[in-house]
Design brief:
Two copies of one chain form a homodimer. By secondary structure, chain A is an alpha/beta fold. Helices cover 26% and strands 28% of the residues of chain A. Chain A has helices at residues 18-30, 53-57, 72-79, 143-156, 168-179, 199-212, 258-263, 309-323, 353-358, 411-419, 424-428, 444-456, and strands at 10-14, 36-40, 81-84, 87-93, 98-103, 108-112, 115-118, 122-124, 137-139, 160-164, 183-187, 215-217, 222-228, 231-237, 241-243, 246-249, 253-255, 273-274, 286-288, 293-296, 303-304, 337-341, 344-350, 363-371, 382-390, 396-403. In chain A, the strands form seven sheets. In chain A, strands 3-2-1-7-19 form a five-stranded parallel β-sheet. In chain A, strands 9-16-10-11-12 form a five-stranded parallel β-sheet. In chain A, 57% of the residues are buried.
Amino acid sequence: MERRMNDRPRLVVIGGDAGGMSAASQARRRGPEDLEILALERGTYTSYSACGIPYLVGKTVSSPQDLIARDPETFARDFSILVRTGTEATDIDLQERTVHTVDAAGTEREERYDHLVVATGAVPNRPELPGARAEGVFGVQTLVDGIRLREYLDTRGPRRAVVVGGGYIGLEMAEAFLERGIAVTVLDGGPEPMGTLDADMGALVREAMTEMGAVFRPWAWVTGFETDKGRVRAVATADAVYEAEVVVLGLGVRPDSDLARAAGLRIGPTGGIVVDRRMRTSDENVWAAGDCVETFHRVSRAPVAIALGTHANKQGRVAGTNIGGGYASFGGVVGTAATKLCGLEIARTGLNEAEARSAGFEFETVTVDSTTRAGYYPDAGAVTVKLLAERRTGRLLGGQIVGAENAAKRVDVLATALWNEMTVEEVAGMDLSYAPPFSPVWDPVLIAARKLAERAY
Amino acid sequence: MERRMNDRPRLVVIGGDAGGMSAASQARRRGPEDLEILALERGTYTSYSACGIPYLVGKTVSSPQDLIARDPETFARDFSILVRTGTEATDIDLQERTVHTVDAAGTEREERYDHLVVATGAVPNRPELPGARAEGVFGVQTLVDGIRLREYLDTRGPRRAVVVGGGYIGLEMAEAFLERGIAVTVLDGGPEPMGTLDADMGALVREAMTEMGAVFRPWAWVTGFETDKGRVRAVATADAVYEAEVVVLGLGVRPDSDLARAAGLRIGPTGGIVVDRRMRTSDENVWAAGDCVETFHRVSRAPVAIALGTHANKQGRVAGTNIGGGYASFGGVVGTAATKLCGLEIARTGLNEAEARSAGFEFETVTVDSTTRAGYYPDAGAVTVKLLAERRTGRLLGGQIVGAENAAKRVDVLATALWNEMTVEEVAGMDLSYAPPFSPVWDPVLIAARKLAERAY
């Protein structure tokens, strides 16, 4: 379909969250003044912090409004971006350059585009098990999920919760329940919580969780949910039944790429939409950003799909710059992530042992115990740092940190080192900040790098 | 002088603090078993944290013993290192490979060496002004200085203090006085406190200081100290007199290289001992480490003398490894430093504007205000990040951070980026950790890098 001469150039964005709205805003900043921008959002809210949902549930954050960076009115007023909420994109026609939409009232439309951004996000893994749709069983993927769960806790006042899945969201939800004085059991299919850490580091998380009064059950594969009058009352595994008045599913997510696949866009081995470094898909007029894409892992050099708001923001910005006629490229990821469970901070970057092995590396590891401040300084907390380095080259492959307050953000040094393909010998020599309130004279990550350098070559 | 066949190889270390004792310990670990190690220390204590002295004075740290990592008995017992305290090295004979020493009793000795480590540290800049030696005027260079000052505060109970010099030590001492409820005025010869920051960032420090109840006086050049019966009662500048019952001098330090110079070792333009990357001096049997050496600044590519325990430790370790027959090199510095003043954290790395100009760079700068946590997360504190990047290349040249708790350690990402000569465009794209308790979705350093990238090319 040729664009008629009197038409304004038109950008359509599918998905009104981090990836999509970053692309839209940046295209507005960088693009031609007459660019028309339409964003389609299936749900009610735009541009909210999905990462903040556990804190909303735990009442660390008081109102859902706090999590919303910009609402549709703000986009309309400040960016001249029209957001149509409650509107689902059901089909993309790459030939005709149109998107078929249906709104809540059932009204269908055909939206033409010159540029299209697919930012459809991720879908939570939800087990197809008996009772999985019972009242009291919640996902916490969207802001609406979070609001509903919070209301349920406020009105029902459950005393026992079960969290299925001991990853980031599972731990953050466990914290939320603890904050609200609700007893919580975390069931995980693996040996330890935080399966993106090695089990020896995950064990530290389990020990801390247990001390905080949460219960962790390893190798706990859920077989179903027992209900009473349509409401959940217990979670069943192969060998046990855990009573629960509320259940949260935190089983991870996968790219929501069905729409893109149906349109004929190329999908990669991770299930994410394939994009080039400018975030362009296999169709030259279509871009993609956020949890629905797969991206390049700089250490494994393999495609990965990592659902994280920070990547979505950067990718959306890159897409928007390119759509606007500028040049920007997304450099990939190194697998950095962080969270906390009450006073315990947890972070990782690069490859863990299983990932390094699967990427074909041989490696050495080291684990050191140190402190977040000089040992003699008040509130010096314990921190454990584990590093992996390639055999012979000594190249840093990954790092994991579990420790007290101020422990987690140290992972950024390791992420920066990975980005630059540094060896642990080089890392050990770096000029990092030192003062007694901030670290021992050798920062814990330097100690770890130094010890690993002695071993890795 | 030929070493006699039956002599054990012998390492002599001049200076029993961070640089010297790191070298000695590492030589013990890596060197031949029969290596004899003698360390000469002019003072009473070995291997203590000089950076901890302000916290000792402010009683954040309770006992001087807390600051001592290892005492002479520990070195003797665990490392077979003989430490002779109260013993000054007065002369080095490079030809004969001997050190002349005098102890407190006046006994003189000639110590032969096969390897010598010069780790004589730094001397504080002390103005030769009337009254500078009065009772109540203190330096805080050595642990003994700190102990004496603390005792003076305990016994005399002064109500007003003046700190001369608004740099790291000056600010840390101001904190110590505030902690003890002593009114404090900081006099500085420049426009703002923290002269290693640009004045616009220093202004933020001044504003915070003032809110904390400390007084800062710019352009205040001290002309003398008024005394009453030999005890200080005021500090005089060209245009004012500041009453003070206790005065601390924090005017920086310079390399203590007199002994090395007299021996004929090469001294550089900074006044520090010249060493190669293995920490070897101009004499092949003599090594040096710590505050007495000059080192390579990786950004300016010029020699610098930076007195900091973390460098001293690394350099000592490098020297010790090489003395022990291994290979290690010191990669230089990027000028990273951090401190705090009560709840305010301050950090810098690389070059500030004046330093960048003097190194011949043309550059762009950006300053951004952000938060240490997601804006909606409780206790999200303000943080200001300033970055400098070279014109045309966009290469990061330096960074400065002033902000609330958890602000300072972010400088390590910038230090790592400088180490790797990254551009701000690259920095902006990096995969740093994100979770609401730790940072906004774009970490403040990423926001700054992103904004500067838009401007630097």
